[in-house]
Amino acid sequence: MHDVAMMNNFSSLNFPRPTAAELDSRFGAVLSLIESNDLTSALDRFDHERRTFESWAALVHLRFSQNTRDETTRSERDYADQLTPKVTAHEVKIKKRLLAADLIADVREKIGSHVAELWQSDITTFDSRIETALEEEARLSGDYTSLLASARITIDNKSVNLSGLAPWQEHPDRTVRHTAEQARWSFFAEKGEELDTLYDRLVSLRHGMAQTLGFDTYTPLGYRRMRRVDYGPTDVALFRDEVATHVTPLVATLLEKRREDMQWPELRYWDESFIDLHGNPKPAGGYDLLIERAQTMFDRMPGQLGAFFRMMVEGNYLDLKNRDEKAGGGFCTSFPDAGMPFIFANFNGTHGDINVFTHEMGHAYQNWRSRMLPCIDELWPTMEAAEINSMGLEFLTWPHMDLMVEDGAAERFRHMHLIGSLCFLPYGVCVDHFQHEVYAHPDMTPLERHETWRKLERHYMPWCDYGDLAYPAMGGRWQAQGHIYRSPFYYIDYTLALCCAMQLWLLSRRDEAAAMRAYEQLCAQGGSAPFTKLIADAGLVSPFAPGALAEVVKEASAFLNQTT
Fold this sequence. Notes:
By secondary structure, the chain is mostly helical.
């Protein structure tokens, strides 16, 4: 078992900066142990070297996200991106040797069948011939992050970044929301050609890598890079159909009722984020109060959430305040050698702060609960399973929302969160379907991609009306979704996980203690099994089962006093 030594404070983290020559030597030592028939030592050393590099690389990328303007953090990120394909090459070489016929039985016995299956998939995703392309892919992905982080939008005589625009996007005044969206999409229109060029290059790179590795298109390679060993594109397509059949009609009904309640002549895009007639509930207060209230909330809940969050706060493993130099969005990363995860976000004073915080806290808690699993491959589950841990906690904190939102708004927040979750499903599967179309037709022009998005949008989200917002109206909305650029095929994971998280919500409404037990078990298992087995062990229905969404939609409709 790997010896995890937790460091007391984030500021004390300092992992060794490797060179290419040092990596050659360290991973070469693993191969030497294998050939000297010391399999146990070889596996231990292999795991140690992977954890060491991953800890350093995660810290480098976090520091870049914390300050995208700093040339030092940018340079260090570029250096890490150059080394990562070299490490991948070492890992694939070693995995191939460990999975060879003379060793596979002993290796499988020591690491388990699931990790062995992950490795079998991994070795098909890399060849030294694509090393340069992988470096370029990482650089272009970083360019996208930097481009969006550079946005400076003036509104109400204030200059804000894209994350900081959120309060105006949810403003009770419809005219203010419209103005905010005009400002936002003006930025994307101004950068549209640059964004199209970036994506052109990424799609071309990925298609070329796939062909080099023997695949017809990028899609099967993309699935393997996501380590999906228990389902494929056909299963995902069936799930997308389930969303279109069961969820799209309910969302259309909810939005039409909102239009009637608000007495709007029509529902525009800038109205979709304004869910509550009385104004979207706001957080209970500023950062310090939210942290204090969150501690009380987690202390109230079963398990070790309270103790864990106290460690996060005391160790400074949180960066939640919005700053101009920060990258947008929110994420959770971890440092395997420290045994502690880190939460990154951009609080902006809206209800989204609570959603992002509980979401990323779910990721962090799972990673901490499974930190002592023996293999680095088990510290995180595959992403669709990981997202159950995050989205599940969003729902399981519902009973304590009186602590986190402004006075008297807890029930309104719960309604808004459920409506937002339902509305997300059609959008999420649209993002996924779009990527399947793009990689099936890699020679699409930018115009054809925009037209493809609009066609799919009309299928999954027929209510979308952009009014005079010309750029999204012509199909440019997808360019604001960073996963499409940086993490191809990573978006369906949120929708698959949401199907499962909402099942935890159903269970919690009947038996809160049972729901928390299932959640704790799921977190503790980490990535020790594939997605479909993890959810089966937790007593959840697979999203790929026919009608998996039907009961959730029925319960949600009843909760919201709607009929489909």
